[in-house]
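Service request form, structural biology core

Requester: graduate student, group of Dr. S.
Request type: structure prediction, single chain
Budget code: on file
Notes: please return the result as structure tokens.

Sequence provided:
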Amino acid sequence: MSTTISRQKFLRYTASAGAAVLLSSLESWAVATPQKKLRVAVIGCGSVSNRYIPHLQTSPMIEIVSLCDIKYDRAVNQNNQYNVNARTYPDIDAMLRGVPFDMMITLTDMQVHGELNKKALMAGKHVWSEKPMANTYAEGKALFDLAKSKKLRIWGAPAVVNSPQFEFMSKTIQEGKLGRVSSAHGQYGHTGPNWSAFFYEKLGGSMPDLGVYNIATLTGLLGPARSVTAMLSIVNPERTVDDKGKIKVEAEDNAHILMMHDKNVISHVMCGFCYFDPHGHEATNQTLHSIQIYGDYGNMRLIGYDWETNGVMLDTSWTEPPKLVSTDKGGYVWQEGATRVGESVLKGTEPRINTEHALHVLEVIEAARKSQQTGMRIKLKSKFPWPIV
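Core staff response, request fulfilled:
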């Protein structure tokens, strides 16, 4: 009797084993947590909080107890606008000394995510962080290890794997309906946000703001990237933004990223702050496709952006036209990540969103920058449990 197992079975086994360990930690936390609601603190009360706060308020399992912003009036204004009835704070240290809470939701400028998330973990709080969860893979991995050592959890956006369209596309690939998959493409861009300088400052850029969605989707569908080759550029060297006026752009506003996956599958992501799109930044009711997957039996295209899904166009026939399928969003919205993982903490269940996947996406972004600097293909070391669905 053979004692060998296929690589696919091995990956499924190790993914299940890893999930079991994490699930056990959440179950233990849930058992030890008698309250009926998870108490959350939101740090960063800018534009993104206008989506997060109302969505958190839809959950009967979550209570927002703290709002924090270094521009203190923004925390006060959001507290009043959404009738949160929370305590408000001008900085994280004051918030951590204040009313007790269980999980911090980080919605600040991306450059400070890592240091804020570390402070929360050190104080014994779970963390949901908007993308990216840290500025480098090493910093993110250290946060992940810190959380494990303290029997806490940290997760990073985006939540694209939660959409019914992602699930449909993943199952279509896994079931072999596209044949042998060889290539994929993702795109996301607009002419750039004008409300804050951090998008254009060092460690900002179109990759951690926009490309992160497509990288998460394509690695989620095709498996971890093994190597990255990229070309990045700054098309507009100066910008005028609301908070600082005219600034010098330091981070890429135009990026093309090639990823090599297992079985010689190649995927490509293009993202930028210099792309005309009449749908604008919100891209509501987008009818064009943003993700394409090609196999030798068929292809499929995600209609709308992967964070604003509107269906999948599936083409598997030489004689019949492509079919629009999986048009039901199932309630999925891009801002649901914190709500869903917060509910999982209280229930003691494991969410589909996986921290090691977020860390892998972060390493892809870092590798793309290194590839641009060196002109070389960069090998990656991180992996995550796959397939996700």
